[in-house]
Design brief:
5-stranded antiparallel beta sheet; 1 helix; 26% helix; alpha+beta; SH3 type barrels; 80 residues; 5 strands; single chain
Length: 80
């Protein structure tokens, strides 16, 4: 299963951006957003290392909250 994850743009270097989310850092390709590139500080939806669209900060933070709930549920279900 593949998920797209909202990530915060920390730095832009040509056609790519250094983005962070949930303690992880990735270089993301901005090619798909060439007509409307993000700015540093904005959040982008990332799938397979490609930024697809700008998302509102509130939506990104809500996604992080939901990911946390999923991980908590999985931890509680783990019998180990």
């Amino acid at each position: 299963m593949c998920l797209s994850v909202p990530m915060k743009v920390e730095e832009i270097d040509g056609p790519r951006a250094r983005c962070t989310a949930l303690g992880e850092e990735r270089w993301v390709d901005l090619t798909l957003m060439a007509d409307a590139p993000p700015k540093v500080g904005e959040y982008v939806q990332v799938h397979l290392k490609f930024a697809q669209q700008i998302v509102p900060k509130e939506d990104a933070l809500k996604s992080y909250e939901l990911f946390g709930e999923i991980l908590d549920a999985l931890d509680q279900a783990d019998p180990a």
